[in-house]
Amino acid sequence: MKSVAIIGxxxxxxxxxxxxxxxxxxxxxxxRYQGGHNAGHTIWVNGQKTVxxxxxxxxxxxxxLSVIGHGVVLEPQNFFNExxxxxxxxxxxxxxxxxxxxxxxxxxYHRLLDAARESQGPEKIGTTGKGIGPxxxxxxxxxxxxVKDLLDKDTLIRRLSSGFAEKAIxxxxxxxxxxxxxxxxxxxxxxxxxxxxxxxxxxxSLIDESARSGKKVLYEGAQGILLxxxxxxxxxxxxxxxxxxxxxxxxxxxxxxxxxxxxxAKAYTTRVxxxxxxxxxxxxxxxxxxxxxxxxxxxxxxxxxxGWLDLPLLRYAIKCSKLTSVALxxxxxxxxxxxxxxxxxxxxxxKVVDCAYPGINLYQAKPLYREFKSFEDDFTSxxxxxxxxxxxxxxxxxxxxxxxxxxxxDRNQIKMRTDxx
Length: 421
Ligand code: IMP
What we know:
Layout: E1 3-8, H1 16-24, E2 29-32, E3 41-45, E4 48-52, E5 65-68, E6 73-74, H2 76-87, E7 97-100, E8 104-105, H3 108-120, H4 132-140, H5 153-161, H6 164-175, H7 182-196, E9 200-201, H8 203-212, E10 217-220, H9 245-250, E11 260-266, E12 268-271, H10 284-292, E13 305-310, H11 311-321, E14 325-329, H12 331-334, E15 340-348, E16 351-353, E17 366-372, H13 385-398, E18 402-406, E19 414-416
Parallel strand pairs: 1-10, 1-11, 2-5, 2-10, 5-7, 6-8, 7-9, 11-14, 13-15, 14-18
Antiparallel strand pairs: 3-4, 12-13, 15-16, 15-17, 18-19
Helix pairs in contact: 3-4, 5-7
The structure holds inosinic acid.
Residues 11-13, 38-40, 125-128, 130, 132-133, 222-223, 227, 236, 238-239, 272-273 line the site of inosinic acid.
């Protein structure tokens, strides 16, 4: 196989980082194509934790080239903080990390606007507060700043000034907050540009040439399909294309297709921020999943909402991104629970619905559950009959294999049932 994608099949936080890190071992390039430092990808190697936000999760592998594609929104200060943290583990140089000259820059104004809207706006989305939405807005309205603009002061001044007058009015009169002057912001960003220069390149050509010369490319998604700006549970979504289509728009796919699209799903469901969540649990089991699964956001430190595995949502995710297999993570958290359920369909207005199509109202969906005999596996020996039954049920319901399952945070706590690459 030449190109494989790892995509979140739920509302993010499925454990994509550790699977990317594992498959990076056999890849030549690992490419991020959307989102920004709203993501939190946690990797454990030999008991040491690394949290990545915008830098691809292949970075811990020396042989592998990590690429930040043009669909990403990049906040320079976070980028260098992250680099500093990684450099304490392994030296990162422009030879193993490349940033697209066409990626969009998140400025101070974007971060402040995101925070102001969340604290003072009429409708709270529960964003990560990193400025992601406002940066994508400027990109789409053609007032965004590209990474290449950081390298040329005159262009930077011109681009940053475009739309500033409008923003300044909002900040002053609507939100009543102080913002840095254009001069301050230009100077701050320009200094980052100088530091970033050697990492910056035309990543589209780089991916194109690499793929054509037979290199193996792994695309790493951030967030999850249900947070996609078009496919997700709008308006409680992020502002990028988290589904497979984001690869085409945010990085480029030279062969025109992917050999494998792995949808990563937790063995239960979690969500941070606002929005519908049919299988959400408000009882003791929900609290146990949150605690045992350590369900706390890697980026914001917020507690995640928890519920049972939701197959109608996964069926929808499969259709949105043409998923070819599922990687089921955190199965160890379910082991030994007093009860075990999987939602196989919803009842809505007296009808049974088995796919969470966008036309249905998820707030009205009553989950229908299949109950399982709990498994007690510690995953050090062959899987129990109960665990196998549970996996087989999921596969038969989804119609695609569970190619991987993960039973702990470390690299060696992942079972590959299929060989990728
Ligand atoms: P934003 O991406 O910061 O604009 O946040 C929009 C929505 O996406 C909020 O509900 C966030 O909690 C959610 N979100 C963004 N990034 C992640 C992530 O990496 N994991 C889970 N949820 C996320």
